[in-house]
Amino acid sequence: MNSENSASSTVSRRRFVAGMGALGVAGAVGGASLVGCSPKADDGKKGKKGGKGGEAFDIVIVGSGGAGLSAAISAYDKGVKSILVLEKMPMTGGNTNYSSSGMNASETMFQKEQGIEDSNSLFAEETLTGGHDTGDSELVKFMCDNSGPAIAWLNDLGIKLDSITLTGGMSVKRCHRPTDGSAVGKTLVPGLLKAVEERKIEVRINCDAKELIKDGDAVTGVKVEEKGKAYDIAAKAVILASGGLGANIDMVTKYRPDLKGYVTTNQSGATGDGYAMAEAAGAELVQMDQIQIHPTVQQEHSQLIAEGIRGAGAILVNSEGKRFFNEMSTRDKVSAAELEQPGGFAWEVFDQQVYDKNKAVGNYDKAGLVVKGASVAELAEAIKVDAATLKATIDTYNAVTTDGKADEFGRDKGLIAFAEGSMYAIKVAPGIHHEMGGIRINVKNEALTASGTPIKGLYAAGEVTGGIHGNNRIGGNAICDIEVFGKNVGEVVATALTK
Ligand code: ADP
């Protein structure tokens, strides 16, 4: 998931990430709004007394990110009213809050309206190719086939994603963003929370799920800790939607020792608890070493620089002012190329039209992350690269943008000429971004053992699941994953419980 953090330059990386200083997001989705999420005592939705005197719900969902909130809404709309969403942090939304690119989806109502030709099978093919054919083709097909309906479902909830752009590895414009082209997370999370509030589904913040309760082979509840108090909650079904592990460096390095010392784009609740709980309950974890690093992270603030900026024409240059790779290639390849450059970093360079087209840039600018110049020469001086070299780089790039062919690095997407005038640059390098591995599931979101048997009562959705993206996730596919599978798991569980 992508972060849209801002911070004062004096705040350390760790403290900033822990402080979750999301631009505007905290205010929109912070604890205060959650008071309204708790059901009134008399609305019939509060947990009933459980077997051992504790509470009991039909469905307990661990995690209030996009996957968890979507699951709650769809389960409710399918007829289950006794639902509890647990959130360990003081605010809801998880990494989904910071998601900056958008939601990839095919054959959507908005693509049709805008005359964009696409197909579910092409989306699936490009997703599998982007993951170097290591993703689970059945899960990928399911995700792509259900992506258009998920866009329509969100639209019905008042979440309109009709500004469509490209992300690396996709040949068709299918990354759906809010109408004004702003970061998707800031529209998605408040929109889902509103729907949750309207349904009076309880979201319990500061409530940390510690362990799954089992009766024989079946999962029957969750042990939680809330403000130092431990208690049990019984459930007919538990849905793990607890996100990834990027903020737990011990767990990251357990699976990927080579990532020691990397910054993370993840919010501090992304501690991998769901993997540990599921594994202890007998679920298989797949592809856990597939932790995606993102190529454009501003290091001092662990601030992810949205991929749409490259899609709108930005280039990456090294400390010599030279381009070195196809900026629109997949994240793994761009990251690797960056690390080979002197100092292991790049400058993401763009002009005024890119600045104006991407609302996020204004936020990065306010946070002090953007270096400016009134011309190429002034920018070159500010970022200490040779002015003639940077000018030649931009002139060469501009020449290629006009002939409609791929450039010398194979870039054939988002080739948009730089205009004269103000120039901007952000210093970037790779950072820990997304756990692509996780709990093995099937298309019913059932958590599976190593032999492929579903664990009764246990489901999972979102980043906590594994195998969909293989060894490289395409930008915009995380939101597609959490929305398609979040919506799906709610429906599947509700159908099972109301049969
Ligand atoms: P996804 O994109 O899959 O929805 P997110 O990162 O957006 O994932 O959301 C996952 C949420 O789960 C985060 O808000 C995180 O703080 C929360 N979470 C993680 N572990 C626990 C836990 N043990 N108990 C309760 N909430 C948790």
UniProtKB/TrEMBL annotation:
Residues 58-478 form the FAD-dependent oxidoreductase 2 FAD-binding domain. It comes from the Bacteria. Coiled coil: none annotated. The keyword Transmembrane applies. Its cofactor is FAD. SUPFAM superfamilies: FAD/NAD(P)-binding domain, Succinate dehydrogenase/fumarate reductase flavoprotein, catalytic domain. Keywords: FAD, Flavoprotein, Membrane, Oxidoreductase, Transmembrane, Transmembrane helix. InterPro entries: FAD-dep_OxRdtase_2_FAD-bd, FAD-oxidoreductase_2, FAD/NAD-bd_sf, Flavocytochrome_c, Succ_DH/fumarate_Rdtase_cat_sf, TAT_signal. The chain crosses the membrane at residues 16-35, 56-76. Belongs to the FAD-dependent oxidoreductase 2 family. FRD/SDH subfamily. This is Flavocytochrome c.
